[in-house]
Amino acid sequence: MIKYILATILICQISVAQQFEGYWKTVDEDGEAKSIVKVYKTENGNIEGKALRILNES
User: Which of 9, 42, 53, 54 would bridge 36 by S-S if both were Cys, CB 3.0 to 4.6 A apart?
Assistant: First the structure.
């Protein structure tokens, strides 16, 4: 029974770790937001990102 519980937990952790697609906020070492980036998987399986907005440009 414990093996099944551990296997279920492992599968759940793997599926959560692979959810990278979406919109992400990049921050600098001071914690200030710098940009919004869209991360997605292409048709050929590559992972790509596109900067959509630059925040607080100075």
Answer: 53
9 assigned to some structural domain: no
Report the number of secondary-structure helices (H) and strands (E) in the chain: 1, 3
Gap between the Cα atoms of 17 and 2, Å rounded = 23
- pTM of model > 0.85: no
Residues linked to residue 39 through DSSP beta bridges, in sequence order: 22, 49
Task: Tell me the C-alpha distance between 34 and 53, whole Å.
Answer: 9
The two structure tokens encoding residue 7: 């296997």
pLDDT at residue 29 is higher than 70: yes
Q: Which is more confidently placed, 54 or 57?
A: 54
Phi/psi at 12 (5° precision)? -65, -40
